[in-house]
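Customer ticket, subject: "Can you confirm the structure for SDR family NAD(P)-dependent oxidoreductase?"

Message body: Hello, I'm evaluating your service for our small team and ran a test protein. I'd like someone to confirm that this is what the system normally returns, since I don't have a reference to compare against.
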Amino acid sequence: MSHSEPLTIAITGANSGIGLRAAQRLAARGHRILALCRDPHRGRTALEVINAGAAHPATLVPADLADPDSIDAAVEKISHATGHLDVLINNAAVFDQTMRTPVFTSSGHELFWATNHLGPFRLTARLSPLLAAAARPRVINVASKGLITMPRIAIRFDQLDGPGWYSPTKAYYHAKLAQIMTTYSLALRARGALDVACVRVPAVRLDADRVAALPWALRMLYAPKNRLAIPAERLGEAYAALATRTGTWQHPGPAAEGRATLRGIYLDENLHPVDAPAFAYDAAARERLWTVSQDATGDPSWAW
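Agent reply: Thanks for trying us out. I re-ran your input and got the following:
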């Protein structure tokens, strides 16, 4: 069942791929979209696409998730634009396989970790008062189906930004595991005041301009995989359905910590419950991750 009242929905990475398709669908159905995009030029182009079928004009919000100052500026703009936020979709991520050596942000964090985990963490915390002001707030995080090939993956607490183990693939899945764990932690901390979900996204077909931008060798290597990948439109519809659902929420009880309690928070592309990597169910590891993430993002306050 879908929401009948217009919702205010913030989507990161709304300029391409799944984020753009979700924004298009939600805007066409009457919802108010705050499109968070790192590149202002690509963001303006995407806004034209979104607004072509929008009931209410979408708002462009520049935001670089690797830059804490950019996140804070985005939060300030959103706060001026609305008194509440119904849904936050943390969709944006970096997965550039040409980055064979680690890149570090001005804050000293490895780029994949900063963009794919610390950025969404800080953004969600900073927007939590606006979410708490909504009648039925929801946060949607995004992980990857590729994690099923890594059942023993764990957070490298002693080397979160360490270059020694880095590869683009390892860094990407490491941050995606953190997204699942953060989703579980947030569900338990909010204790029913917030609907939280994490979507396990499979390989998605890249937009033509993204493929064209790849180096020739990588483009040839990626072509067969891209043909077999799921169209971004299908995942955009899944995001939209999850953003507007009015069905079952997860309401963990005060003593709940086990797998059964967390069931239904991590979902596949069809929005069916799936199991996370075993490490995500380690309560002590989740608490440690929350603590180090708080420290790394300036100890932001939360509404829950």
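A couple of notes from the result: The mean pLDDT is 90. Residues 168-190 form the longest helix (23 residues). Feel free to reply with more questions.
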